Amino acid sequence: MSANGKGKRGVTRYSDWMMQLPPELHNIPLFNLAIPGSHDSMSYDLDSSSSIIEPDSLKKFSRLCCVRKTLLKWAATQEDTITKQLDAGVRYFDLRIARKPHDTNPTRLYFYHGLYTRTDVEVVRMIYEHPREIIILALSHFKGFDQKTELHNHLIKLHCLSDKMNIYVSQQVTPTLRSCWDQGTNVIVSYDYPAIHDSYMWSKISYFYGDSMKIARVESVLSEVLEKTRPSHCFFVCGLNLTLPDDARICLYVLRLCDSFANVVRRSLPRLLLWVKQQGSRKPNIVASDLAGREDFVSAVIQLNISK
């Protein structure tokens, strides 16, 4: 299948797939659309020279370059930049925020997953050239914030979130494609910190995942969510991602010197995408994956919206 997605009913380009959906889908809540998302979206930018943030079992080895570089291979869940993910059709971004404990700048913030990113939060711009595509930014974790409200306020006021206030979708309404287009809004910001009550910040979006490296476990957990506890009036995420152990068992994986997390994902995605394609009437909402820029992942999720 070409990058243009020819042969997909109603969608010819993934870069602006939302505006190509059939008209009957323009007025349904976004909670009822199937939306491709990326897990640990900024992990392509991890810095092997940074200290180890997680898991706790490896923190004491932060000074060892070989350990940091090995961890990098297993913490990088994405290979494409944010811009490339957007162009590929990804519309949900999992952004985990942290502050370095001994940073001379008390308000400088980074993304992280195991390690800190090279790029700080302030210089990242979620700019997209397709204003009719709705983007969901999920900010969470806030490692090193230590319940300091001033850091949260600083993050919210950063130019990357507040330079175009009119583009943000209010949580006061049930968003649809049509309502967003009519209002000229296209960014939804979920902020996982209950003390923040800004009008344009959405509360935490539930993220369901298998918490395992076993594909069968991931499928089982997500199937149970869709069958028994599927949220109906809010966004929710089904995470296809495999999860490394957070204890000493992680060594069973990271010591595979000729392997990497990206390779594990490439081996597991075909089976996980088969599970996605089989959902049909119990369609998930946001489906998040590692290596989310892959066309087979994006197309499998989008096709749930237009399959008969």
TrEMBL record:
InterPro entries: PI-PLC_domain (IPR051057), PLC-like_Pdiesterase_TIM-brl (IPR017946)
PROSITE patterns referenced in this protein's UniProt entry, alphabetically: PIPLC_X_DOMAIN
GO molecular function term, any single one: phosphoric diester hydrolase activity
One GO process term, biological-process aspect: lipid metabolic process
Record-linked PANTHER family: PI-PLC X DOMAIN-CONTAINING PROTEIN 1 (PTHR13593:SF24), PTHR13593
Protein name: Phosphatidylinositol-specific phospholipase C X domain-containing protein
Species name: Anabas testudineus (Climbing perch)
Lineage start: Eukaryota, Metazoa, Chordata, Craniata, Vertebrata
